[in-house]
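The following block was generated as part of the benchmark described in Methods. Ligand: LLP.
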Amino acid sequence: MLDSNYFYYTDKRLNCDEVRLEELASTFGTPLYVTSSKSLVDSYNAFEHAFRALPHFTCYSVKANFNLSVIRAFAELGCGCDVNSGGELYRALQAGVAPDKIIFAGVGKKHEEIMYSLKCGVFMLKAESISELRSIDRIAGELGKIASVALRINPNVTAETHPYITTGGSKEKFGIDEAEIPEVFALLGQLPNLRLIGLDMHIGSQIFDPEYYVAATVKLLALFNLSKTLGFAVEFLDIGGGFPVTYDPLKPATLIERFAEKLVPMLQPAGVTVIFEPGRYLVANASVLLTKILYKKRNHAGKEFLVVDAGMTELIRPALYQSHHEVQAVSRHDKTVVADVVGPICESSDFFARHREIDAVEEGELLAVMSCGAYASVMSSNYNGRLRPAEVMVNGSEVKLVRKRESYEQLILNELL
Ligand code: LLP
């Protein structure tokens, strides 16, 4: 069971802050994403505290959870944003983030997106190839602007995590090959509409071992020193995101302080501002996905299934990355059963938990799928004609609807007969 200050039992009933999850289900229906806004604030403060000795600027990676209210919660704390598309940029702006606090990343930015970001004056664009640098230079020239850019390097460090979310190795599409960087420095002299202000990396996500960051930072610092000898005035070193959270209490994540202990002394002497782009760390454990048990059934082999009203359309992580999410009964029972918790989608990969010991819940009761703040709602889909759930945010005893449930009309809104 994932114990937290934000989701906890009183009288055998699960609460979010001071609100019973049962109450939220009866008011807003299920499936429902429930976010504790205190948890967002506390995670951000914990991150800031860990890196307090370093001049830094934290940019929340909105891809983890792009709900406008979530983005705004961080913006109100002074946090910037890391966006990966024109759509995320639009969301950040709509949430009230100042353009000069937004960094624009992405391995395949379209020309329209580059144009959009330059027009609204983002803080910097992170370029991932020579061709992209040429495009940014040309578009900036057309607009009569000088674009502030960072070079995303691929440090050739393969961090141990799920293979789909490691990004810093030589097999991956991300970043400019470290060996190519000297050539890029030479090229920058011929691109008059660019100003190199940063060097950047992002080696992956849910990385438990700080040593991977150390290895990649060594490479980044070497290139920083080279940039100085060549006369560039690089002011920002961007370390990326990827800091881990606990999904499974049996596999607790490395504390953020362990990363800070290694990185702060390495980066301090550079005398630059360090940028961090945490996504998951700030949001993963702030939300649960609340779902109702529709049916219980048992097969000839004695296997027990709990069929619930949420599925891989609302949380694809178990199907895509075999990831573990705790599943907790909203009303506790003294007895337990071993069951598969499965959704209504017509795919065998549509499950939240397999062969899991769980409270002996009945049909009609509620389950909370834990740690659904990151990469859950943002990766949701309309597959099988599913309606995206509502989202609520809880602060103490206050509850705010921050996303309405989709309707059938919205499902066909863009289609023409
Ligand atoms: N910066 C860049 C350039 C990124 O690509 C990412 C995540 C982040 C920052 C934030 O990483 P975080 O701190 O959240 O680990 N869907 C996967 C995770 C994909 C991560 C993609 N990039 C999952 O559910 O595990």
